[in-house]
Specification:
The chain is mainly alpha-helical. It has one domain: DNA polymerase, domain 1. It contains 5 helices and no strands. The longest helix is centred in the last third of the chain and has 20 residues. The protein is globular. The chain starts with 8 loop residues before the first helix and ends with a helix.
């Protein structure tokens, strides 16, 4: 995952890019579902970036602990970090459950 604000357009040429709008096809992604269940959003300003960072983390670390989650560097001015942590752990459990079904 990369931040679009610091990634030159030329570097994206010929590469696949997924934004929050393309995250899920027919229903919400597990991370989006967990975000809603944990009531994470407040102002919404950082949420797309937070969710995309969480999706990337879970792709690399399917069972993240607090230290793994702390490596995410998106800032939330509302301070919803405890809810973000819970949502990421909930999404991880949901994704593991989907894989075992």
């Amino acid at each position: 995952a990369v931040r679009s604000c610091s990634y030159p357009l030329k570097a994206a040429e010929g590469r696949s890019i997924t934004t929050i709008e393309g995250l899920a096809r027919d229903s919400l992604h597990a991370v989006q579902q967990a975000w809603i269940a944990e009531d994470v959003p407040q102002c919404g300003y950082c949420q797309a970036g937070q969710i995309m960072a969480a999706v990337d983390l879970l792709a690399r670390v399917p069972e993240p602990d607090d230290a793994d989650i702390a490596t995410l560097t998106n800032l939330c001015r509302c301070g919803t970090y405890p809810r973000i942590r819970r949502a990421i752990k909930r999404a991880a459990a949901m994704m593991r459950s989907e894989q075992s079904s």
